[in-house]
Design goal:
CATH architecture of chain A: Orthogonal Bundle
CATH superfamily of chain A: Ammonium transporter AmtB like domains
Mean pLDDT of chain A: 92
Order of helices and strands of chain A: HHHHHHHHEEHHHHHHHH
CATH topology of chain A: Ammonium transporter fold
Structural class of chain A: mainly alpha
Oligomer: homotrimer
Shape of chain A: globular
Number of helices of chain A: 16
Number of strands of chain A: 2
Low-confidence stretches of chain A: 1-25
Largest interface: B-C, 77 and 76 residues
Radius of gyration of chain A: 22 Å
Strand content of chain A: under 5%
Number of domains of chain A: 1
Distance between the termini of chain A: 60 Å
Chain lengths: 438, 438, 438
């Protein structure tokens, strides 16, 4: 009685797990139960790998910023995972994958909509994985876009405003523009290619970050009398942990984007992803060593991420050599991009714009240059980049600007100087240690 | 000669690995070699995920306590893994899964007992995994129960006493009560349901923790003149790392409890587990923000774990909406529970009682409310909760009380004030940093 | 046009990914698509597990050394991954697996050499995994050998010299000696057995470390007036994180060395690996507690790694009891070995020689004692140990000695005292914290 009340009132579907226990044998053509199970298992492994990227982002971002704002950053990054998963269940998934739609915007309804019986199971996705696997893998992706914004606005954004921005960004903006390609929309029809999201995830997050940073302005004391004053991160072990966990997660981010455990494609993706990251480290090391006259750890951490973002759009469609070249170029780009943003006084504490936006653009265009598939055309890739940039930037700017008017988006000067941890959360991240607030 | 001496003297069985290299083709009905391999691979992935929970516990516990006791906590948590695995091989596994037995207690013998030939391989567990997979997956579970106790008794327990307590707890108490349900004992026969251990693992650990904490008493300076003096954790990054790693591990803890790679069930479990954790974060954030007027990071970390513990008993048998509701309630419960234990002066440095015991009870009862399986009854779930509580608490209390009489269980006041690291281990956890011992 | 230029100029092969999309059905005998996919998926899981060992090494090594050198260590360990992967693609893989060769040295050519069509896919490795999987799994291994050296030379080695040494060590020395066994060379023909690299990886890394340490000499202030002055690690949480991540990675290191997802063998390897690590913790705890009169965290961390290194050579060919004994002995050895190296004034900041070299030798010889396969002979194991030791040590010594003459291998006294971070990198690892440079 009580149960039926719950289930009829709420929009999310009822699942009878018993249908799982006695599946029919109607697998897709050529798909055995063993193959279906192996495919689905890989997609779930990829899911937990993408999940761990959220810890990677939290670590990288807090490591590269000051100790007085660490609790705040950890709070944001934990909350975003929850917001991302829940809003994706509520509406994101059905906005991003609306089924038949006009190619620009569609909505398959509130909550999850498990196809009945075998259709959600062995009959789903050509027998590669189940409906639930599809949802949870995509849901883990979704929150990463919002997390990218988090890094760029760190150390000065107001917590409540950021959480509201993130919720709307991940629930509505990210999935709608995502549907243009991955949902089978107009850019997909045009031949645009973005394998795992150089643009759809990293570019979208990066454009959102740029919009927010322009509205927020730089941190106090970053640009003084026309000079750039570096603000050092408080823990390089934490930042390095973050980079390695992000790379680890990328095996699932790119490897899972094969959307099956296809041995040839997944193993190729592991190779291209790893070698692009390695190449990004190498070229960012050489570049920054030459330009800055010092081997710079934060640069090679970002160099590896630059290579990873760069290879993401074409990881399954370039050669091994192509992957290395994409990574080498990304590692050079990221060094100059970090310097460029500082020169134009756009303050990005962790280099998120350089890594995700700039290298996301590079990676998307690189498909047009290095792809072994002649259907991938540079001009179409450029159309995609511009379309995503224009719409995401405008939407994020409008949203954050509105929040600025309604409730403010930046903490007070006093709060910023004394640290967000004590003011917003009432507790420091490190207790017992002697810490200077810089 | 020397070899035969070894093998005849020792109780653990001899394995001829060569039987593995030429398996017969007698797979269980409907199980191909591909399916068997996919299933077994998933169970081993789940195994290493549960393993990483030990690092999660170590990180969470040390992050939420003071720097002067960190070496001690890390030592405990490292030693427990070893003790858990070795005692489980020695006797735990055969106490928990004794085969045919009276339903209350049984023992299949000292050491492992690999069924000969195919019976330990393709003939084991309906062709889902091998005997060795079964053992190592269950062994990884076992030590988690003892680790839960570790968090509650932190910063004042005597190392040697704790190690002895843990060894007996994990070698004897945990597997015997575990056999009542997972070994096919009397509670299983009664229809009690606990999918992955809201009660069998988290409740058991929580009852053990409660017994020890009552005997130990609170930390010095926690309750002074009837007032609660908060003792802050020394590193929120470490605590956050711990939460994320625990969540990561839970994909194996719950996902592996399907006991095969069944695509429908494992993917459902991934969804319910993730959304319950997300819901726990959301509701604990809202609740603690309203009650404490501050967004509290440690509360949302515990909120996520509360959701995870809550969903554990029914992760495969509730709807997506049910999972979200279970998580939402758990996140509210944990906030008030933490406040309650402080009000009654039960000092639990990391909130282990609230997360594992209280939300473990909630999760077990929630099966009776939200399960889609009409065989799951609330009163039976309550019987299980009471039975586990009574016996585990009594056994743990008796054991720890005996240890108190025999060798003492608490460090001296001086040792507690100066820190367990210098006194018990002779080395600080952080060297070179300026640290106040609070 | 532009593309064809790239591809004809460069040595790395062109891959047409489209061959993957329509595989033929010519699987190896008895291998279904499901089995092939499950096998390959496991090997890729093992690959990302080995990857995460690099984070484990970085964490362990930086945790066990001083804060003033942390950026330097993190930089080295990040750069080594890149160098290892890229040089392995360039020449390492084809030196280690040259195909038919004289048993001592062979080279299959610059760059990767993907067999055409199905031969690189379902026709590769008896249908267990693809060519790309083979490469990336082996490439992840390669860099670990160089990383072992990194720990021993920490806090005094010159960055540029170390990077050049590592590149040559991993690109040439490691794969050539590796080919003697894993490439099917003369030691393989002789019956030498090293399942996952107690000697081929850990021994090789350890001999390289010994050579470098002898040339470098001890850190300033370590041995003063004939006395050993302990230099404490700056962060035990970081060191503990490192140990757990290494253990986690070992599930892939050993589990992947089965070279398929064979359920019997992989699950056996999980059991032997875990129990050896647990036994190493137990025996090192008891030994160090008795000898040093204190429970020493860094000793049990090294004890677990000692057990892991020890079991690596025979993880698939010993009994459960054998694995426990190997781990118990390794845990005792490592304690006395650490004390021994200090007595003879060989300064190894993280215990890398004791863990990787000494226990690597022990593990290799242990195959001759505990293997259930009568073809494994102690004297052959000894021949292998001696051959690897002589050649690796000589080559590494020659190389590092040459570098010493050419460009120097050690930082200046001032740099060592003030810390490598400020001198080599111009930035501290921790900013905002009050730190003594000891």
């Amino acid at each position: 009685m009580k149960k039926s009340l719950f289930f009829s009132v709420l929009a999310l579907p009822i699942l009878s797990v018993f249908t799982f226990i006695t599946p029919t044998t109607a697998y897709a053509a050529g798909v055995s139960q063993g193959l279906f199970t192996a495919n689905n298992t890989w997609m779930l492994v990829a899911t937990f790998l993408v999940f761990i990227m959220h810890l990677g982002f939290a670590s990288l971002e807090s490591g590269l910023t000051r100790a007085k704002n660490t609790t705040n950053i950890l709070f944001k990054n934990t909350a975003i995972v929850a917001i991302g998963l829940l809003t994706y269940a509520l509406c994101g998934f059905n906005l991003m994958y609306p089924g038949d739609f006009n190619g620009w915007i569609g909505f398959a309804g509130v909550g999850l909509s498990l196809p009945a019986g075998d259709a959600g199971l062995i009959g789903y996705a050509d027998g590669a994985y189940t409906y639930y696997t599809d949802f949870i893998f995509q849901a883990m992706f979704a929150a990463t876009a919002a997390t990218i914004v988090s890094g760029a606005v760190a150390e000065r954004v107001k917590l409540s405003s950021f959480l509201i921005f993130s919720a709307i960004f991940v629930a509505i903006i990210y999935p709608i523009v995502g549907s243009w390609k991955w949902g089978g929309g107009w850019l997909d029809a045009m031949g645009f290619y973005d394998f795992a999201g150089s643009t759809l995830v990293h570019g979208v997050g990066g454009w959102g970050a740029l919009a927010c940073v322009l509205i927020l302005g730089p941190r106090l004391g970053k640009y003084v009398n026309g000079q750039v004053r570096p603000i050092l991160g408080h823990s390089m072990p934490l930042a390095t942990l973050g980079m390695f966990l992000l790379w680890l997660g990328w095996f699932g981010f790119n490897g899972g984007s094969v959307l099956s455990a296809d041995p040839g494609l997944v193993s190729l993706v592991f190779v291209t992803t790893s070698l692009a990251a390695a190449a990004g480290i190498l070229s960012s090391m050489v570049t920054s060593w030459m330009v800055q006259k010092k081997p710079d750890l934060s640069m090679i951490l970002n160099g590896s991420l630059a290579g990873l973002v760069g290879i993401t759009a074409g990881a399954d469609t370039v050669t091994v050599m192509g992957a290395i070249l994409i990574g080498l170029v990304a590692g050079v780009i990221v060094v100059f991009s970090v310097m460029f943003f500082d020169r134009v006084k756009i303050d990005d504490p962790v280099g998120a714009l350089s890594v995700h936006l700039v290298c996301g653009i590079w990676g998307t265009l690189a498909v047009g240059i290095f792809s072994t598939n002649p259907d991938h055309k540079l001009w179409v890739q450029l159309v995609g980049v511009v379309a995503y940039g224009a719409v995401t930037f405008a939407a994020a700017f409008g949203l954050f600007f509105a929040l600025k008017g309604i409730m403010g988006v930046r903490v007070t000067e006093q709060e910023e100087m004394e640290g967000l941890d004590m003011h917003e959360h009432g507790v420091a991240a490190y207790n017992g240690f002697q810490i200077n607030n810089q």
